[in-house]
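REQUEST FORM: STRUCTURE PREDICTION
Request ID: SP-0412
Submitted by: Lab K.M.
Chain count: 1
Length (residues): 293
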Amino acid sequence: MSLAHDGLPPLREIVATYGLDPKKSLGQNFLFDLNLTGRIARAAGPLTGVAIIEIGPGPGGLTRALLSEGAAKVIAVERDERCLAALADIASRWPGRLDIIPGDALALDFADLATRAEGAPLRICANLPYNIATPLLARWLEAEPWPPFFDRLILMFQREVALRIVATPSERADYGRLGVLAGWRCRSRILFDVPAAAFTPPPKVTSSVVELIPRRAPDPCDRILLTAATQAAFGQRRKMLRQSLKPLAATLGVKAGALLAAAGIEPTRRAEEIDVAGFVALARAAQNLRGPH
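STATUS: Completed
RESULT:
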């Protein structure tokens, strides 16, 4: 069933009926293009028997597309109380298949929320509000235990953020902590771009839909130490690692040179030159030097 024939009013009519003017303070940019909402939903598919967590559904354009494409359940988290009535209309159209969770996604326990999937495979698919997109992704990438509660992420970001997610040392300008974290735990790729004109109101930037598929067994290392190493290294990315890693090494009671030697990394290299395997080696070296903890 296409979204245009799901028996509900057009999105623009719903927005007018409920007075849902997008709020900049909530990072809202509504997507009315049915071809695009359908394309995003299909990118998350096939959806038969699958549960979806959606963040920031707004008037429900993507929500309707996900249900139309066959999602067994959509668990929609919406902070804007103005949107709840519009989402309730969708829930009435799809009895038992839409759970509406009012509240701030940043304050939720997603592992607990995942129990609403009732054992179905779970994915996260969302046109993320720009102002919470990066912290939410970091939280999902840092989930414990791993493999996580989701089997795939299909998320829309500003293109500059999308480029940082998929970056490697060959794209030095974009490569940073987010690229290391995503590269360590997931296989990620940009699926397609979405022009600003597709949104209401149109943002000042192009957006991109990114797919992240969790690796079943990432190279083992201490996640907290990996995060500490990337924060230290990229926090002073123009400096050589023998300088930028001094604070981290000090917490271990060693010199930065000793930490780098243990990881097999030349001290004159910079953060943007170190691939994911190199940062994993740094985290392992830090764990070994720290000893039992």
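NOTES: The chain has two domains: 3-214, 223-290.
Reviewed by: T.R.
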